[in-house]
């Protein structure tokens, strides 16, 4: 039983890139692409003992496939508009649960490769990397905050407390997280999540 499928991953990245290209053609006022890479970019293989039996490829292949899929699907878009990749590491990227360095994460390897490609190529792509648990960035004057892990439910007292604390520290206009591996749109105190 494979939980992680490289072909499905590649197809989803290609679909998102193609849909992005369509939207840019439909709306010529779009002048920048901000691509959020929210962690868990690969499945990894060391989070639990049986994980290697639930993946279709080893980590090195997963990393290579991810970098190639993102680069070859999105880099051509930078011929028409600049691209900013905003990144945050996830828990599936941890190389082992007891890693001594916060930087020791497969997601960071993917982002470092994308950053290197962006710097040695002629592409108009910038990669914003961080080793913190959050990344702040501006989009059209609005402050965004991305964390890999956010509260699964923002209306519980715990969820409200976390969101309120982060908001007091950073004053974001919108917030994104992806730890729960599902798309969910919502709001907290009138701010989009």
Explain this structure.
The chain has 193 residues and is an alpha/beta fold. It contains four helices and eight strands. The protein has helices at 6-26, 59-74, 106-120, 157-170; strands at residues 33-37, 83-87, 125-128, 134-139, 142-147, 174-176, 187-188, 191-192. The protein has a three-stranded parallel beta sheet with strand order 1-2-3. The longest helix is centred in the first third of the chain and has 21 residues, at 6-26. The two termini are 33 Å apart.
In a few lines, what is going on in this structure?
The protein is built from 4 helices and 8 strands.
The termini sit apart by: 33 Å
* Helix/strand/pairing category: alpha/beta
Largest sheet: 3 strands, parallel
Poorly predicted regions are: none
Strand order of the largest sheet: 1-2-3
In percent, how much strand structure appears in the residues? 15-25%
Report the mean per-residue pLDDT as an integer: 88
Shape: globular
Q: How many E strands?
A: 8
Helix and strand element order: HEHEHEEEHEEE
The helix count comes to 4
User: What is the CA-atom radius of gyration, in angstroms?
Assistant: 17 Å
Helix content: 25-40%
């Amino acid at each position: 039983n494979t939980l992680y499928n490289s072909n499905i991953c590649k197809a989803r990245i290609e679909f998102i890139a193609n849909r992005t290209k369509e939207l840019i053609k439909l709306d010529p006022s779009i002048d920048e692409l901000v691509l959020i890479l929210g962690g868990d970019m690969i499945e990894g293989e060391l989070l639990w003992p049986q994980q290697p039996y639930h993946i279709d490829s080893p980590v090195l292949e997963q990393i290579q496939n991810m970098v190639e899929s993102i680069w070859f699907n999105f880099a051509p878009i930078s011929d028409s508009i600049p691209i900013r990749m905003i990144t945050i590491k996830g828990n599936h990227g941890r190389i082992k649960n007891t890693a001594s360095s916060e930087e020791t994460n497969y997601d960071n390897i993917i982002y470092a490769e994308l950053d290197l490609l962006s710097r040695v190529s002629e592409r108009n792509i910038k990669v914003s990397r961080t080793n913190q648990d959050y990344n702040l960035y501006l989009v059209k004057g609005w402050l965004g905050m991305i964390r890999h892990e956010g509260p699964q439910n923002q209306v519980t007292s715990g969820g409200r407390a976390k969101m309120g604390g982060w908001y007091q520290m950073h004053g974001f206009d919108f917030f994104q997280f992806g730890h729960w591996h599902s798309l969910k749109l919502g709001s907290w105190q009138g701010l989009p999540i």
